[in-house]
Write a structure and sequence with these properties.
It is a single chain. This protein has 199 residues and is of the alpha/beta class. The chain has a single domain (2-197), classed as Beta Polymerase, domain 2, CATH 3.30.460.80. Helix content is 19%, strand content 29%. It is built from 3 helices and 9 strands, in the order H-E-E-H-E-E-E-E-H-E-E-E. It has helices at 2-16, 39-48, 117-128; strands spanning 20-26, 29-35, 56-64, 78-86, 91-98, 106-108, 131-133, 162-167, 172-177. It has a 5-stranded mixed β-sheet with strand order 1-2-5-4-3. The relative contact order is 0.12.
Protein backbone atom coordinates (compact mmCIF):
# COMPACT_ATOMS: atom_id res chain seq x y z
CA UNK A 1 0.00 0.00 0.00
CA UNK A 2 2.85 2.39 0.79
CA UNK A 3 4.41 1.96 -2.66
CA UNK A 4 1.05 2.55 -4.31
CA UNK A 5 0.56 5.80 -2.36
CA UNK A 6 4.14 6.83 -3.18
CA UNK A 7 3.35 6.33 -6.88
CA UNK A 8 0.11 8.33 -6.64
CA UNK A 9 1.82 11.13 -4.71
CA UNK A 10 4.61 11.35 -7.29
CA UNK A 11 2.08 11.38 -10.17
CA UNK A 12 0.01 14.12 -8.50
CA UNK A 13 3.03 16.31 -7.77
CA UNK A 14 4.36 15.88 -11.32
CA UNK A 15 1.01 16.60 -12.97
CA UNK A 16 -0.34 19.38 -10.73
CA UNK A 17 2.78 20.95 -9.20
CA UNK A 18 2.10 24.28 -7.50
CA UNK A 19 -1.65 24.05 -7.97
CA UNK A 20 -1.74 21.74 -4.95
CA UNK A 21 -2.25 24.18 -2.06
CA UNK A 22 -2.17 21.51 0.63
CA UNK A 23 -1.19 17.84 0.53
CA UNK A 24 -2.17 15.37 3.24
CA UNK A 25 -1.38 11.70 3.46
CA UNK A 26 -3.11 9.99 6.35
CA UNK A 27 -4.59 6.54 7.08
CA UNK A 28 -3.69 5.18 3.67
CA UNK A 29 -5.44 8.04 1.82
CA UNK A 30 -4.31 11.14 -0.01
CA UNK A 31 -6.16 14.44 0.22
CA UNK A 32 -5.22 17.51 -1.79
CA UNK A 33 -6.57 21.04 -1.55
CA UNK A 34 -6.75 23.21 -4.67
CA UNK A 35 -7.91 26.79 -5.24
CA UNK A 36 -11.41 27.34 -6.61
CA UNK A 37 -9.92 29.27 -9.54
CA UNK A 38 -7.88 26.18 -10.54
CA UNK A 39 -10.56 23.54 -9.90
CA UNK A 40 -11.89 23.10 -13.47
CA UNK A 41 -8.40 22.83 -14.94
CA UNK A 42 -7.20 20.50 -12.17
CA UNK A 43 -10.29 18.29 -12.49
CA UNK A 44 -9.79 17.96 -16.24
CA UNK A 45 -6.15 17.02 -15.74
CA UNK A 46 -7.03 14.51 -13.01
CA UNK A 47 -9.37 12.81 -15.47
CA UNK A 48 -7.30 13.04 -18.66
CA UNK A 49 -3.67 12.75 -17.55
CA UNK A 50 -2.40 9.23 -18.34
CA UNK A 51 -0.47 9.19 -15.03
CA UNK A 52 -3.67 9.76 -13.00
CA UNK A 53 -6.78 8.61 -14.96
CA UNK A 54 -9.48 9.48 -12.42
CA UNK A 55 -12.37 8.41 -14.62
CA UNK A 56 -15.04 8.56 -11.93
CA UNK A 57 -16.27 11.07 -9.42
CA UNK A 58 -17.90 8.83 -6.81
CA UNK A 59 -18.99 11.50 -4.31
CA UNK A 60 -19.13 15.26 -3.83
CA UNK A 61 -20.44 17.11 -0.81
CA UNK A 62 -20.53 20.56 0.72
CA UNK A 63 -19.33 21.46 4.22
CA UNK A 64 -19.76 24.43 6.54
CA UNK A 65 -16.47 24.87 8.39
CA UNK A 66 -17.58 27.85 10.52
CA UNK A 67 -17.37 26.00 13.82
CA UNK A 68 -15.20 23.04 12.89
CA UNK A 69 -14.21 21.25 16.10
CA UNK A 70 -14.77 24.54 17.99
CA UNK A 71 -11.39 25.76 16.83
CA UNK A 72 -10.67 29.20 15.39
CA UNK A 73 -10.75 28.95 11.63
CA UNK A 74 -8.94 31.43 9.41
CA UNK A 75 -9.91 29.61 6.20
CA UNK A 76 -12.98 30.18 4.07
CA UNK A 77 -16.25 28.96 5.55
CA UNK A 78 -17.60 26.75 2.73
CA UNK A 79 -15.83 23.74 1.35
CA UNK A 80 -16.55 21.28 -1.44
CA UNK A 81 -15.06 17.80 -1.04
CA UNK A 82 -14.86 15.40 -4.00
CA UNK A 83 -13.91 11.73 -3.96
CA UNK A 84 -12.37 10.41 -7.16
CA UNK A 85 -11.69 6.88 -8.36
CA UNK A 86 -9.32 5.59 -11.01
CA UNK A 87 -10.62 2.19 -12.07
CA UNK A 88 -7.77 1.58 -14.52
CA UNK A 89 -5.01 2.42 -12.01
CA UNK A 90 -6.93 1.28 -8.89
CA UNK A 91 -6.47 4.31 -6.67
CA UNK A 92 -8.58 6.95 -4.95
CA UNK A 93 -8.18 10.63 -4.19
CA UNK A 94 -9.98 13.20 -2.06
CA UNK A 95 -9.95 16.81 -3.35
CA UNK A 96 -10.93 19.82 -1.25
CA UNK A 97 -11.91 23.18 -2.75
CA UNK A 98 -12.74 26.17 -0.54
CA UNK A 99 -15.20 28.77 -1.87
CA UNK A 100 -13.27 32.08 -1.63
CA UNK A 101 -16.25 34.28 -0.66
CA UNK A 102 -18.24 33.37 2.47
CA UNK A 103 -21.12 35.72 1.57
CA UNK A 104 -21.56 34.24 -1.91
CA UNK A 105 -19.82 30.84 -2.04
CA UNK A 106 -19.03 30.00 -5.67
CA UNK A 107 -17.05 27.03 -6.98
CA UNK A 108 -16.77 25.91 -10.62
CA UNK A 109 -19.02 23.00 -11.59
CA UNK A 110 -17.34 19.75 -12.58
CA UNK A 111 -20.50 18.32 -14.15
CA UNK A 112 -19.06 18.82 -17.68
CA UNK A 113 -16.03 16.76 -16.57
CA UNK A 114 -17.82 14.05 -14.55
CA UNK A 115 -21.56 13.84 -15.23
CA UNK A 116 -22.08 12.09 -11.89
CA UNK A 117 -21.45 15.45 -10.16
CA UNK A 118 -24.84 16.74 -11.35
CA UNK A 119 -27.05 15.71 -8.44
CA UNK A 120 -24.25 15.98 -5.87
CA UNK A 121 -23.73 19.65 -6.80
CA UNK A 122 -27.48 20.29 -6.67
CA UNK A 123 -27.55 18.77 -3.17
CA UNK A 124 -24.65 20.95 -1.98
CA UNK A 125 -26.40 23.99 -3.45
CA UNK A 126 -29.68 23.10 -1.76
CA UNK A 127 -28.29 22.27 1.68
CA UNK A 128 -25.35 24.73 1.91
CA UNK A 129 -26.07 27.43 -0.68
CA UNK A 130 -22.84 26.76 -2.58
CA UNK A 131 -23.22 27.96 -6.16
CA UNK A 132 -21.61 25.78 -8.83
CA UNK A 133 -20.73 28.10 -11.67
CA UNK A 134 -21.42 26.53 -15.05
CA UNK A 135 -23.92 23.94 -13.78
CA UNK A 136 -26.66 23.59 -16.42
CA UNK A 137 -29.56 23.00 -14.00
CA UNK A 138 -28.69 24.28 -10.53
CA UNK A 139 -31.89 24.08 -8.50
CA UNK A 140 -33.05 22.55 -5.24
CA UNK A 141 -33.17 18.77 -5.09
CA UNK A 142 -34.12 17.80 -1.51
CA UNK A 143 -36.09 20.73 -0.10
CA UNK A 144 -39.21 22.32 -1.56
CA UNK A 145 -38.78 25.05 -4.19
CA UNK A 146 -40.27 27.61 -1.78
CA UNK A 147 -37.93 26.62 1.05
CA UNK A 148 -36.13 29.55 2.65
CA UNK A 149 -32.45 29.16 3.53
CA UNK A 150 -30.03 26.26 3.46
CA UNK A 151 -30.65 23.76 6.29
CA UNK A 152 -27.14 22.32 6.72
CA UNK A 153 -25.52 25.69 7.41
CA UNK A 154 -24.48 25.90 11.03
CA UNK A 155 -26.35 29.19 11.51
CA UNK A 156 -29.65 27.77 10.25
CA UNK A 157 -32.23 27.64 13.09
CA UNK A 158 -33.07 24.16 14.35
CA UNK A 159 -36.80 24.79 13.95
CA UNK A 160 -36.46 26.43 10.53
CA UNK A 161 -38.07 29.64 9.30
CA UNK A 162 -41.41 28.50 7.89
CA UNK A 163 -43.66 25.49 8.10
CA UNK A 164 -46.22 24.21 5.66
CA UNK A 165 -49.65 22.80 6.30
CA UNK A 166 -52.74 21.94 4.35
CA UNK A 167 -55.40 24.65 4.55
CA UNK A 168 -58.90 23.14 4.18
CA UNK A 169 -60.49 26.49 3.30
CA UNK A 170 -58.22 27.27 0.36
CA UNK A 171 -57.75 23.55 -0.38
CA UNK A 172 -54.02 23.88 -0.87
CA UNK A 173 -50.72 23.77 0.99
CA UNK A 174 -49.77 27.09 2.60
CA UNK A 175 -46.58 28.36 4.20
CA UNK A 176 -46.57 30.24 7.49
CA UNK A 177 -43.98 31.33 10.05
CA UNK A 178 -42.91 28.58 12.41
CA UNK A 179 -45.31 28.23 15.34
CA UNK A 180 -43.24 25.80 17.38
CA UNK A 181 -42.12 27.32 20.64
CA UNK A 182 -38.62 26.32 21.70
CA UNK A 183 -38.56 24.14 24.79
CA UNK A 184 -36.03 22.27 26.80
CA UNK A 185 -36.47 18.52 26.67
CA UNK A 186 -35.25 16.78 29.78
CA UNK A 187 -35.05 12.99 29.57
CA UNK A 188 -37.05 11.07 32.13
CA UNK A 189 -34.84 9.11 34.50
CA UNK A 190 -36.10 5.69 35.48
CA UNK A 191 -35.13 4.56 38.95
CA UNK A 192 -36.25 1.04 39.66
CA UNK A 193 -34.95 -1.51 42.07
CA UNK A 194 -32.85 -4.15 40.35
CA UNK A 195 -32.79 -2.16 37.09
CA UNK A 196 -30.48 -3.89 34.64
CA UNK A 197 -29.88 -6.77 37.00
CA UNK A 198 -27.95 -4.62 39.49
CA UNK A 199 -28.50 -5.22 43.21
Amino acid sequence: MTQKLDNLQAALEAALGGRIKQFKRDRGEITITVAAADWSEVATQLRDDSRLRFEQLIDLCGMDMSAYRDEPNDRARYLVVSHLLSVSLNWRLRVKVFAPDDDLPVVPSVTPIWSSANWFEREAFDLYGIIFEGHADLRRILTDYGFIGHPMRKDFPVSGHVEMRYDAETRRVVYQPVTIEPREITPRVIREDNYGGLH
